[in-house]
Amino acid sequence: MSETLTPEPPHANELPPEELEQDAPLDERGNLTSEFVRMIRERIDERDDDEVRRQVAELKPADVADLIEQLGEDDTRKLVEIEGAELPAEALAELEDGARDTVIDALSTEQLAEAVAELDTDEAAFVLEDMGEKDRAEVLAEMPIADRLALKAALEYDDETAGRIMQRDVFAAPGYWTVGQILDRLRSVERLPETFYDVYVVDPGYKIIGLVPLSKFIKAKRDQIVQELCTPEPIVIDAKMDQEEVAYLFEKYNLISAPVVDDSKRLVGMVTVDDVVEIVREEINEDMLALAGIEEDNAINMPIRKVARSRFVWLLVNLGTAILASFIIGLFDATIQQMVALAILMPIVASMGGNAGTQTMTVAVRNLSTRTLTGATAVRAVWKETAVSVINGAAFAVLMGVAAGLWYAGLVGQPRAEATALGSVLAAAMIINMLCAGLAGILIPLGLQRAGQDPAVSSAVFVTTVTDVVGFFAFLGLAATFLVN
């Protein structure tokens, strides 16, 4: 009976488990460990180039990009110098804008052209799109003619369109070919798409007739005519279609890939599901940042001046809304002087309205982006949010009205009648503001989309303005009418 022995790594049994874990570059969640990043920094400072190359060679391109983003600008330049041509080209497409700019500056034109040529056209266009015209032309001039023409064609499409994110390498065959002919062609072609899921069937004008999923294609007999296998009238994407529309079609029809056509309906490329996953992630991040009035500064390596400038604009807008709310308060300064309790309680009304409006607005923006909130469902959605606002407004009105009345009567020692009146005014203002907050949270995003604006970018400012102004005006206006002589 034989036995196969697997030798242990040298000295593995002499190392404690803690040290073995610290040597691992990734933690249990797949993120680079702080110990590994610190070790790379130390090796870079010590100019231990061989060890740096050995460690980086064991990482996947996405992890190399993660490492670069954590190193900082100076260490990144040194790492690029050490790696040279060994730096994975795929890492360039994974980097955030600030870190990618640093890497591009550190690479020579020849090195950058060689790296870009290894990428798919969609990833290569992503790397080159933010470069200056002169630098981009120099890189393209160093590339093979076929890659250069393909990239120039991709860059002619607008940013965030199907033409920009598509892969131009596709496999298509005429409808009269047999499965055997196509298989022989696939085996003989030197350059095939790195990943594809369908065989596209085209007419002599290179217009889509249909497609054959590979799972169906490989089961067919060699003498089968491919047009007899193809799925007619497939989902086809226009090259000028916005990438959000592309992602919506993929989600709606459960697509893995889809052909892309130009204005003449000729096949020019394909979009695959990995591209769409990236689109969804980008759009989610953009919407999350836009709701907070932040644009394009989610990267750690983004220059401080650019971050400050982008946030300043929205902070200035918010300052204007805060001044408007203060103006409303100023209209009732005499009322506040006669009853100090109003100054203590009025932030509660505005805050509760603001939170309620933000909840409704977030749901509305999400539903608009996923197409579940449309013209056909708008009336139902408005009615639903109105009902929710009235129910929650009434609940919190009772809660805060009773609490304010007990506090004003018990702790402050005011007459029960005045305490009851104050609680009633607070309750009424709470209902009014939360109702307005709910309506604003649904109607403002709908109105902005109808006007052709992005609801995620502008809704928050308008909703906050409504809840602050209505909250202060309702509470102080009711107090001036019923509480102060």
Q: What is the compact description of this entry?
A:
The chain is mainly α. The protein contains 22 helices and seven strands.
Written description of the protein model:
It is a single chain. The strands form two sheets. A four-stranded mixed sheet has the order 1-2-3-4. The chain has 22 helices and seven strands. By secondary structure, the chain is mostly helical. It starts with 16 loop residues before the first helix and ends with a helix. Helix 15 packs across helix 16 (273-291).
> Mean pLDDT, nearest integer?
85
* Number of H/I helices: 22
Q: How would you describe the shape?
A: elongated
State Rg.
31 Å
Parts with pLDDT < 50 across at least 5 consecutive residues: 1-7, 9-22
Distance N terminus to C terminus? 104 Å
- Structural class estimated from helices and strands: mainly alpha
Sheet of most strands: 4 strands, mixed
Range of strand content: 5-15%
Kindly state the number of beta strands. 7
Quaternary state of this entry equals single chain
The spatial strand order of the largest sheet comes to 1-2-3-4
H/E topology pattern? HHHHHHHHHHHHEHEEHEEHEEHHHHHHH
**Portion of residues within helices:** 55-70%
